[in-house]
Fold:
Amino acid sequence: MNFDFSEDQKLLQKTARDFLEEHSPLSVCRAVLESDQPYARDLWKSAAELGWLGTVIPEEFGGAGFGALELAVIAEEVGRALAPIPFSSSVYMATEALLLAGSPEQKQKHLPRLAAGESIGTFALAEKPGQNAAEAVETRFERGRLSGSKLPVPDGDVADFAVVAARTGKGVSLVLADLGADGVEARALASFDPSRSQARLRFENAPAELLGGEGEGAALAERLLDRAAVLMAFEQLGGAARAFEITKEFTLGRYAFGRPIASFQVLKHRLADLWCDIELTRSNCYYGAWALSNDEDELGSAACIARIAACDTFAAMSEDMIQMHGGVGYTWEYDCHLFYRRAKWLSAVLGNPSSWKHKLIDRLRARPA
Amino acid sequence: MDFNDTPEEAAFRAEARAWLEANAAYKNPDAPGQDPLGERIDDATLRAAQAWQKKKADAGWACIRWPAEYGGRGATAIQGVIWGQEEAKFETPPNIFSIGHGMCGPTIMAHGTPEQKQKWLPRMLSGEDIWCQLFSEPSAGSDLAGLRMTAVRDGDDWVVNGQKIWTTGAQFCDWGIIVARHDPSAPKHAGLTFFVVDMRAPGTEIRPITQINGGQGFNEVFYTDVRIPDSYRLGEVGDGWRVAITTLMNERASIGGMTGGGGGIGDLLRLASDLEIEGAPAIEDRAVREKLAGFYVRSKGVELTGRRTLSALSQGKMPGPEASLMKLVATRLIQEIAEYAVEIQGAAGATTDAESTPQAGRWQERYLAIPGLRIAGGTDEVLRNIIAERVLRLPPEMRMDKDVAYKEVPTGPPNT
Structure:
């Protein structure tokens, strides 16, 4: 049994960590958060040059031709750094969608540009609050034209194209839409985490083309969300682990009543519990990565498990991070809110944990554990 | 990344399974589970357990990780796990030797003289002798080093007086390992010495303790002028704490393993499918589904963390501090799952009658049994301290009793 990453994968992870520690300290995240720039362009360029954007893109399309496990370790590091780049939208959503359902022409057109960071993609599913599933979309695609509204779309303000879930004559389909085309309006929305953007997309008879078969959109979206959920769980895991380390260091350095506050049992026990949560979540994420890279039948439940654990753990960790810092944790100046914001942003974008819990039970009933 | 055996592991698994198939029957998956604390052991069960152990010993399948000179086969850690996984698939008597094999044996191996090892280990391995562990006292549980039992040197013997408690299986054991205080004027950790004790030595009185679930897994053991030969001492005089730590580390590993990963989540899913709430299967109720999903995620997390530990073993690495994590998380989870399984039964949750209670009342029984596991082998609170201090390297607890003679340490009222 070897339920762990290989030495090569760990080396890749270390390289990514070293790079991000030098080039993406939390001040880089904060700079995007506090400015009008939607993402860190230099860092995005570096991510392309390092080959991260094309990790799972085959070499014939300009990628590195690695598998999901390599992408998972990079995702964890992107999460640790709270890197303010549209990585999840372009890599886990748009790239995965093209790999899953793209025609040879579509792949040839988009994948090399995605790998090089020349094009940013995203996935536009939700249309209104409370919606998590593709079945309910009202945006329409008819005779090559797309009409409707998507709200909110992660990184929709900076994306060059979107994979859009739309209704067609045969149910729900996925379509590819160029966001620079006539009939498309993209408006940035204030984001809960301004280091990652959100947008409203409006389509009015905008040109678009089918991605995958007509009527296969709901099934494709489900597969896509499962795959993205695992990769995003690694981002969340990385964020939670980093928040834990920062919090632990703070409690060791902060003195009250003549002793480090980390010496009080009430905080020691809380940190011990958080550490356990993070370790269990790590195990759940590894399982998701294993299912993803082996394309196992188990991906259906493994993705839910990774997603639910990662959302819950990062949320709990970021809440306790502020609490354990005390008053300074609530200041703009301290970094705690960067984690608090990112945790909620990541937990909202692929469908909330509650929707994944129902998905998990449905899948367990369909295929006993 | 994979869950598969290496070729060597697969070959070993096949060899183990072949022997088991020739000597035991596969478990009936529908049979009720054995009680995990071995609380209901009668003479016939005892004899059957000893016979099975002897059979394994004769064929070289007992305590396979032990060196050949004591009857083992010097197997690797991962081979030990594989054997355990395979044996668990077969119908076998309850394992009444786990304390001996899991805690006493390793302690003797680490600290015993060659003569002591030869005297005790082979008979322990073959199941001829059954062993127990006598550490806790009424006033010393989590603070084990505060124990009061006295040991006074008298010629070639030590004379011990005092009381031990929570001794699993004492009523049917032949030997025990025991820690006593030989020097009350030394600081508490330094005044302890470790012995092997004959459970039938004159002056020993064993009284079973009835638990909240009616079981009698534990005992009180009273010592009145019991003589222990100095040749039964393990380690040096004053070395008792260091020797005891060896035992405790092995204990946590074995309880963490005992609780497994599942916590009964599969049973709970079946219960929620069979049970109706207001005319519809419970599993269709949104609140129930979210609760089940949360349990399932944590349950899988425990199971998969176990897999990570096994992977480390498989690669010949020492597992990290997961043993403390596994026990802390798993026992709590089993309790929450059992509590919820009783809750969704509605009014029937208040019955335990096997005929009329869902799943023959197993959840009510489990709910009554589980508080013991959250305490035995390190309470939740002690385990959190261990994780905080040994894993996370947070500052140790402030000790009021450090560097103070044991007899000067405040102790509160006498035993009640």
